[in-house]
Design a protein that fits this description.
Blueprint (H helix, E strand, L loop, with lengths): L1 H27 L10 H4 L7 H21 L6 H10 L2 H15 L3 H23 L17 H15 L5 H15 L7 H11 L4 H22 L2 H6 L6 H6 L11 H24 L9
């Protein structure tokens, strides 16, 4: 128990050191931060709009989670392939959270909406995978859903862009946000990926490089402290890059996609929780939790 606590503190501290270094880089690097328009995409209807990319994310997430329930802990090639496909979901989420921060008229209302669904999703997520609803009873990992760091990611972008908040205060606030989200699915890496993507808006290459750097950090921790096979699987987030490159800057005709995701995410987890109970009873089936 003491050894596990020491390991958690060790790489938690490592996260914080890297995060502080990155935040300092954002403010100390003397570069022009031009708000570039995505003209090469907006001039054409070709490519994929945000609705289409979100459908891909939902489909990939469903494949990933169904594989979690039906074949827990499996390292069979085709099961791992299901989880590789599932790596498409998180980066698409991060990308469009960053886009949402740019386009929203009220970023605070945007964050509040995400926090509301994070609370609902907390219970759905833990029910799906057999975790305790009360965090930290068995682990510090996977204690709540990815919606939690997504919501905090919005707040982090707001903090970073707020001109009246002093830089040293921003450092402290971002580190605190990372501590608060450390226990969630995708941990504080989701927050930092959103910040990086938002900061580099208009520079797709820099967005993707920074996203993969944070994912690489997550993969290393996963490999050494949770599961080696699935640590490597995290790196397949890179498969999302060609899809995101096809983004044409358009939302799509249907305006209800965000509400579909907000409903679908906790609903599919609840149904998977029922399936878990039918198949195995009330047992935990998440690696590392």
């Amino acid at each position: 128990m003491e050894e596990n606590l020491f390991i958690n503190i060790l790489f938690g501290a490592s996260y914080i050191v890297v995060i502080i270094g990155y935040i300092k880089y954002l403010y100390s690097a003397k570069r022009e931060k031009k708000e570039k328009k995505i003209t090469m995409k907006e001039k054409s209807a070709h490519g994929l709009n945000s609705n289409q990319l979100k459908v891909i994310a939902i489909a990939a997430m469903t494949i990933d989670h169904v594989a979690d329930i039906l074949w827990p802990y499996s390292t069979e090639g085709w099961v791992v392939l299901c989880h590789v496909i599932g790596r498409l979901t998180a980066p698409i989420m991060w990308f469009f959270i960053a886009e949402g921060c740019h386009y929203t008229r009220d970023i605070k209302a945007y964050a509040k909406r995400l926090f509301f669904f994070a609370v609902i999703s907390h219970f759905a997520y833990n029910f799906a995978f057999g975790n305790s609803f009360i965090p930290f009873k068995t682990s510090v990992f996977g204690q709540t859903s990815v919606i939690w760091p997504l919501a905090w990611g919005v707040m982090a972008v707001w903090i970073m862009n707020h001109e009246r908040i002093k830089n040293w205060v921003k450092y402290i606030l971002i580190v605190l946000i990372c501590v608060v989200t450390f226990c969630a699915d995708w941990s504080c890496i989701a927050v930092m990926a959103i910040i990086s993507i938002a900061d580099a808006r208009g520079n797709f290459k820099r967005q993707m490089v920074s996203m993969m750097c944070w994912t690489g950090m997550y993969a290393v921790v996963y490999f050494f402290f949770i599961d080696k096979v699935y640590g490597v699987v995290q790196l397949f987030v890179a498969l999302s890059i060609p899809l995101l490159k096809l983004y044409n800057g358009k939302r799509g005709e249907w305006k209800g996609m965000k509400w579909l995701f907000y409903v679908y995410y906790p609903l599919h987890l609840f149904l998977l929780g029922l399936l878990r109970l039918l198949l195995y009873g009330n047992v935990n089936i998440v690696i590392g939790v």
